[in-house]
Amino acid sequence: MDQNNHPKEREEMANKAVQLFADGFHCSQAVLCACAELFRNEPPSPEVVAAMAPFAGGMGSSGQVCGALSGALATIGFTLGKTTPRQENHKQMCSVSYAMIQKFTEITEPHGSIQCADIAQVDWKDKDAVQNFRKNPDSTRKNCVRVVRETSNVLYDLITDKLQANS
Question: Helices H, strands E: what count in the chain?
Answer without folding.
Answer: 8, 0
